């Protein structure tokens, strides 16, 4: 890919013979004036996870700050697996720049309250210093039935995977194109499917492409090549010791996305190739109903308290750990599978992105612009059906890249043939270039093309990758990952303090926090029936027709 190609008009870019037919047809259709506005109607949102820590970098063991609202009902500030693991959620916006501005405001609001408690937001995906497993707090959501269900689910995760794994943070990127865009493509590609089914199957096709090419994201954006030495707690591993307090792999990009020495066979082979939405949903439906012997030995209750929702392979659908998920906004108390069955796929959630420790909010706008081009490419590119062999090849490419992606001459596999990571990556960027050109023509600028140029530079010079920069920074801090993480956390806090919220921003976030606390209190005051009955009913609501 030559840099000059990014400035070519879209019409010239579409003439490239290396593009596959479906991508060419789709881009040509969307480039027409009546359809161009459709690309501006999709939505993007970010969920950023971050640990609360002390000024010394130790895990904060205090409850979720009440001033930030209810972790159950605040739509923008909640917690994830651990009580100490905060999650900041932006509203979905047509322009990711708007969402990131809101994410920045949420961070500045949170640090104002955390300063009062002498706490910081941790700057890394991997945690710093953790206490003993028993002392890591599980997220608490109050005494409503829904709140207790969320808490019990996390108790089950602690039993199955350990609490340390509940202290790992990431960036989740939510992406959709407009329903009308899918309808326009459907009209040009008539099938017997309804618009809803066509849209869902095209999202599944996008996921297939994502699985083929997501190794590229790990090379370009992986930022966790090291972790604290105590994290594995005596588990066997293949990491190397960088210093007394730090383990690493010299060519790793994202240890967060590796197995980290933890093994769990329950989910092995759980999901077959992503060839149809039905097969995906059926597999999940079976997994949340299929007993797993080891989990049965743990039981669901201890001394009259619930410790797992069930003893099946999955407690709920979201326990299936995937790098990407098809999603639909769920209604209160609704199961994810119920929503997908009833209304189809609405968006996709990318879950493999590391927190960028050099960005105060964990992700840069330029990274987000690239994700938009990459995901649109995945959605429009031809996506042949897959099989177990190709699925294993994709998984192996991903695993190689997270553990040794910066190794010179690293070879991946494509359709049974060996491919050089660097060469293949540059070819992919060239194929994505016309997608970026279309997005830029719609905006009247070159932000997506510029993002592709930055990624091209990383493929040509491995020292420009985030993982290489992280290792260089760790070396500057005495080869200590915890020291680097703490220094970045203090630097980010200083950045947030230097840019206080406007009165309007502060008022809006305070109001959201207050209303969420009132909503939780209302839920707890009016609920009826026992939690035992509630959880029994919830477990029974898996769409059984998918399991037949």
For this entry, give a set of tags:
45% helix, alpha+beta, disordered N terminus, Creatine Kinase, Chain A, domain 2, 11% strand, 548 residues, globular
Explain what you see:
There is one protein chain. The chain is an alpha+beta fold and 548 residues long. It has one domain (39-230, 266-405, 488-540): 2-Layer Sandwich (Creatine Kinase, Chain A, domain 2). Helices cover 45% and strands 11% of the residues. It is built from 19 helices and 14 strands. The strands form four sheets. Strands 1, 2, 3, 4, 5, 11 and 12 form a seven-stranded antiparallel β-sheet that branches. A three-stranded antiparallel β-sheet has the order 6-8-7, with no helix packed on it. A two-stranded antiparallel sheet has the order 9-10. Helix 7 (195-213) crosses helix 12 (365-380) and helix 14 runs antiparallel to helix 15. The radius of gyration is 23 Å and the shape is globular. The model is unreliable at 1-20 (pLDDT under 50).
């Amino acid at each position: 890919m030559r840099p000059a190609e990014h400035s070519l008009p879209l019409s010239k870019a579409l003439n490239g013979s290396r593009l596959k037919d479906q991508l060419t047809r789709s881009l040509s259709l969307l480039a027409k004036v009546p359809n161009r506005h459709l690309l501006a109607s999709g939505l993007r949102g970010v969920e950023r996870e971050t640990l609360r820590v002390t000024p010394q970098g130790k895990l904060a063991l205090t409850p979720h700050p009440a001033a930030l609202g209810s972790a159950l009902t605040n739509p923008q500030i909640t917690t994830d697996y651990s009580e100490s693991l905060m999650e900041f959620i932006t509203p979905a916006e047509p322009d990711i720049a708007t969402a990131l501005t809101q994410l920045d405001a949420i961070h500045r609001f949170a640090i104002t309250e955390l300063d009062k408690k002498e706490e910081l937001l941790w700057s890394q995906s991997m945690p710093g210093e953790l206490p003993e497993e028993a002392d890591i707090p599980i997220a608490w959501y109050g005494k409503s039935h829904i709140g207790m269900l969320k808490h019990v689910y996390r108790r089950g995760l602690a039993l199955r995977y350990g609490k340390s794994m509940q202290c790992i943070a990431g960036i989740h990127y939510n992406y959709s194109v407009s329903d009308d865009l899918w309808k326009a493509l459907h009209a040009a590609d008539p099938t017997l499917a309804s618009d809803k089914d066509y849209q869902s199957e095209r999202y599944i096709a996008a996921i297939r492409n994502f699985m083929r090419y997501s190794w590229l994201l790990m090379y370009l954006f992986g930022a966790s090549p090291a972790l604290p030495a105590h994290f594995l707690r005596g588990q066997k591993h293949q990491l190397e010791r960088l210093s007394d307090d730090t383990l690493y792999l010299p060519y790793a990009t994202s240890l967060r996305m590796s197995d980290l020495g933890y093994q769990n066979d329950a989910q092995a082979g759980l999901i077959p190739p992503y060839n149809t939405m039905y097969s995906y949903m059926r597999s999940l439906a079976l997994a949340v109903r299929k007993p797993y012997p080891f989990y049965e030995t743990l039981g669901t209750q201890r001394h009259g308290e619930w410790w797992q929702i069930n003893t099946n392979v999955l407690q709920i659908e979201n326990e299936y750990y995937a790098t990407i998920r098809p999603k639909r906004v769920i209604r209160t108390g609704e199961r994810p599978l119920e929503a997908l069955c009833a209304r189809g796929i609405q968006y996709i959630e990318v879950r493999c992105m590391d927190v960028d420790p050099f960005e105060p909010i964990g992700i840069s706008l330029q990274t987000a612009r690239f994700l938009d081009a990459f995901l649109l490419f995945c959605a429009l590119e031809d996506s042949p059906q897959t099989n177990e062999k190709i699925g294993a090849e994709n998984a192996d490419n991903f695993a190689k890249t997270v553990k040794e992606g910066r190794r010179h001459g690293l070879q991946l596999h494509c359709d049974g043939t060996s491919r050089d990571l660097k060469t293949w990556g540059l070819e992919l960027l060239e194929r994505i270039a016309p997608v970026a050109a279309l997005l830029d023509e719609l905006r009247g600028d070159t932000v997506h093309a510029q993002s592709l140029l930055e990624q091209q530079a990383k493929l040509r010079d491995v020292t420009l990758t985030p993982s290489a920069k992280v290792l260089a920074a760790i070396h500057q801090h005495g080869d200590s990952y915890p020291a680097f993480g703490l220094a970045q956390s203090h630097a980010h806090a200083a950045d947030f303090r230097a840019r206080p919220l406007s009165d309007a921003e502060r008022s809006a976030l305070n109001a959201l926090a207050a209303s969420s606390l009132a909503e939780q209190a209302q839920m707890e005051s009016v609920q009826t029936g026992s939690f035992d009955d509630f959880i029994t009913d919830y477990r029974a609501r898996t769409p059984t027709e998918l399991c037949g």
